[in-house]
Each structure stands twice: as structure tokens, then as C-alpha cells.
Amino acid sequence: MENYALTIKTKEKEGVLGEITDIISSFGINISYAHVYVEQVGLGNVNLELDDVEDIDKLKKELLSLDSVIDLNCYGSLNDIFGKRVIIFGGGAQVSAVANGAIIEADRHNIRGERISVDTIPLVGEENIAEAVDALSRLHRVGVLVLAGSLMGGKIAEAVRKTKEDKDLIVISLNMPGTVVEEADLVVTDPTQAGVMAVMAIASTAVFDVKRLKAKGKNKF
Amino acid sequence: MENYALTIKTKEKEGVLGEITDIISSFGINISYAHVYVEQVGLGNVNLELDDVEDIDKLKKELLSLDSVIDLNCYGSLNDIFGKRVIIFGGGAQVSAVANGAIIEADRHNIRGERISVDTIPLVGEENIAEAVDALSRLHRVGVLVLAGSLMGGKIAEAVRKTKEDKDLIVISLNMPGTVVEEADLVVTDPTQAGVMAVMAIASTAVFDVKRLKAKGKNKF
Prior knowledge:
The structure is a homodimer.
Chain A: E1 2-11, H1 16-26, E2 30-40, E3 43-53, H2 56-64, E4 69-75, H3 78-82, E5 84-90, H4 92-110, E6 116-122, H5 126-135, E7 142-148, H6 155-166, E8 170-174, H7 180-183, E9 186-188, H8 191-202, H9 210-215
Parallel strand pairs in A: 5-6, 5-7, 7-8, 8-9
Antiparallel strand pairs in A: 1-3, 1-4, 2-3
């Protein structure tokens, strides 16, 4: 069973996505991601990531038999292409320093065949960052969050606690004032090291289990 | 009319997504993004980004009336939280230098209320990068691509040309050997400047139209 991405060109009319998802559900296949847009007037574009597909040819044939499907292409999954995501939130000098460490480390892993992305949003303010942390559970392929600021607590700490309850997420925080460090699995003083360790924490080629450190109470550096 | 994100907790059974999308389609609402996963055995989690919603309360009520929907929450859209994405592909020293420029510039814009993300995948090899460029049209919220390498052409140039035909995408390339520079809207020698200009090209607060430069043939720096 393999993961695939399908790009389906459709007539733009009501219920097309429903027709397509009905067929996919009837195969017992899970849709992990979809991106749908109108390509031009009258023409829709449906992009789907499918998990654990048994018979892709049979699925393609059934989808092509729909009156509203014009064309269909099959690709490797986004997960195979872009891999797991290191997500970095924060502002100022720290956020680019953390990203720099993570990108250089991801480059070293990816050159050996792994796929790790480093996705950064420079953001400041308690409300803004708390909202972004909340939104993480709606993102695809998230492996680890790095909080790259100088002061974070309150609603941000609350959002981190809640997100970790809902989702299997590793959280690394820079060493800083505020309660967010209490929610993190790992607290690191040096921003470059925080970025490097974020990549190591999700890399399948690295021997590093961040959750074990926290369990032992030895997670501040 | 506003954009919203919905997180729907559902019973995990065949056809749930179809039932949900049928209702949304019947409101004439476009689903621009979906992320679906099984939260625990028997419990599904459907995350949707909806464009141009007229009556969110009526939609929520109809969705909650479905037997398979357990709970429903409404948030600001991912576009409002994470904004447009600068996507950076490439390897080695260049990729982190471009990202550094882009992140510092995005920080300056975001602190004034804008939202721009900088998403990097360190990647080398003609086939790998061409495949990643091809996959861009399946990603959500992409505004600009920066090619941050030392030599790119062949299949990468072909993938850039094809993606630009399908999608409204700005492409910035570092100045390098290979045919990819011919497909780019802007060619920049300094990696920091390439990152900064990528952000300026999609920022709503910046006065810079990269496509106008290309039309004038004055797009190499």
C-alpha cells in the first residue's frame, strides 16, 4: 500500500468534490490533504493526498468515469517530496538565527536522501503567536515547533499545552522569560543549536529522542 | 463575505467527508484547503478552509445536524494567520543565505500587520528539484519561488516553465549557470537580496512589481 497525490482537472460545478470523495471513500482510502481551486472559469483543479492506496489503477479508472472529471494525473505524495516540517515562530534576530541552524542541518540530512522542510513565520505578540500555535493542528506534515522569541507565556503557553494534548508534536523553546519554557520538551539557549536540534528531533537518520530528555528532567541547555 | 477555517470532529466512517462537502457545495462555497486525519480509533478530524462564506451560522447549523458530526469549531483562515508563502529550493550555503534575507524582510513586514511565511526545503539534484517545482501547484498559499542553487537547468527549467503556465507564480533565481535563469521573472546575484526581493514581490505594503521588470528586460542584478 502506497501514498499518492492526485491532480484532477474537473468541470466547475456544484458537488464535484463530493462525487470524487465518495468514490475514494468507497475504496476505504483516507484523504490526508486536499487543495482545491478554480483554474479558470468553468475549470476546477482538485489536488488530493491519499494514504494507503491498494489499487491506484482501479481508483483512477473509476474517477475518470465521472462525467465531471476531465483529466487526472498521479504523483508522489507531498510527504515524499517535502517531508516533515520544522515550524518556527518568533521575531527579530532569534527567528532567522534558529531558521539558519535548522536549514543548514536539514540540508545535511536531505543530501543523504531524507526530506525535511523548515517553515518560518516571523511573528510577534502574545495573541498572534497563540493563534498561530492553535492553527498548527490544522496544518499538514508538522513534526516540531520551535518558539524563537525573547519572552513568551500566558496565552502562548496555554495554546502549546492544548496543541500537545491534541496532536503528537515536539516543542522546542529558546531559553527565555515566561511560562512557555515549562510546556516545551526541550529548552535551548543558543538559537543555532535550537534549529539544529529541531531537525535532529524529527530526522529518521538521527539518534536523538527529545521526549526521553524531558522525562528525565534534563531538557534545559 | 469572509474566509473561515472549520475544524470538525466526526465519527470515523465511510463517506463522512462526502456528506460534509455536499452541504458546503450546496451553499456555493469553495473549499480551498482540507486536512483530514483520524484523531483516534473511531474519531475523525476534518479541517477545511472556506472561501467567501456568506452565512457561517447557517452553514454551521446544517453541518452540526449531520449524524456523523460530533463537534465543530470555527477559526480565522490559515491565509489570515500564515499569509502568503515564499518558497525556497536549493542547497548548501545559498539556501540558508536566501532564507535569512527573506525571514528578516518578512519580520519587518509582519511587524506592521502583514503575514508572510518563508518555507524552505534544502534540496539538491535535477530530478529532485524538478519534482518539487512540479508539486508547487498542489501547495496552498504559494506566492513566490526562489531557486537558491549554483547550477540549475534541464528538467528544472522545464518544470518552472510548465508551473508558470498553470499557476500565477513569481519565480526569482540566483544568477547561476544553466537555463533556469531564462525562465525566472527576476535574476539576482546576492542571495540576501534575492530573499529580501522575494518578500517585497508578494508584500502588499511594498511598491515593487517584479513582472514589470521582466517585461522591460531589466530583470538581472
